[in-house]
Amino acid sequence: MTLEIIVGLVVLAAVVLAAATVVRRRRRLPAVRALEDAAAAGEVADRVVGRLADRAAGSTERSTVSLRDRLSKARTALTGSLGSALERTSISIEAWTEVTEALIRADVGLGASSEIVDAARSRIEAAGHDPADAKTALQAELRERLGGFDRSLARRSGGEGPSVWLFVGVNGTGKTTTIGKLAKREVDVGSRVVLAAGDTFRAAASDQLAMWAERSSTHIVRGAAGADPASVVYDAVESAAARGADLVLADTAGRFHTEQNLMAELQKVRRVADRGSGVVTETLLVLDATTGQNGLAQARQFTEAVDVTGVVLTKLDGSAKGGIVVAVQAELGVPVKLIGVGEGIADLVPFDTSEFVEALFA
Fold first, then answer.
1. Strand pairing partners for 251?
2. How many CB atoms within 10 Å of residue 16?
3. pTM of full prediction above 0.85
4. Residue 52: what pLDDT?
């Protein structure tokens, strides 16, 4: 074999070896990239979940920020319109019309706004007060209309079985977060709580509730994706009874109030939750306060479907105008029991009529 042939064979072997190496690397590359992408995605997910947990956790102590400061945007929207009318030395019919329009723009509603203004005018005229006292009369009328409701969260007495608090509302209102915050708060005061992941249509909802269950050291009952929500809630109630727990917080799938078939399913969940060892003592509608009058339409439909006992208004520290509080209670007779004024646990607070009215006009 000549030298040229030997060299040619060596070169050919080297080329073949190099080609094989390239092929192997190309075959490995997608898998390696897939692993790297998965790892990166996992790291991002961990960071996001961690941030959400930290953000939602906030401080377990009551925030030092006042409700007045939390409602600064709502107050600006209301008092900005009222200022020119209420700060005059005398108030004309036109001025009272401006007050009515300001309340309507604040989401109080046409009917309720007119009634409030008429009553405030009557207060001033009956007492012989100077029209400059219109602001005081308006505040007094709002306090009276918002008062007279039992805003406590009802519990079953006698220890005969767990109480069930059912949470309803459309997606995006903060239902699951509200449940998580309440669970932490109830556990901190000594309640034995079980969470029911009744939103079986969104895996993220169950995962989020599981995160809160871990943080609050509570037991959670979950179902498979697409499972019957009513059966999940029923199982959670029975699990609570077996564990000696006294409270079940039940999440439900978000639905629009116009979806009749889903509202019928919600009615089924409500019925089934009462059949076992527990009793539904609260059906709480979670409303996004920034939705304004659309929130009132939601409240009306949900109240008719499942006998809502109270409202939780979230995101009241944002661009909400605040008047939806008055509208819900005036038109439906359903009390606002809790308000969300921030992202921390301590920012879900009981609704206080006097504090709310003072904060709006401060």
1. 197
2. 10
3. no
4. 42
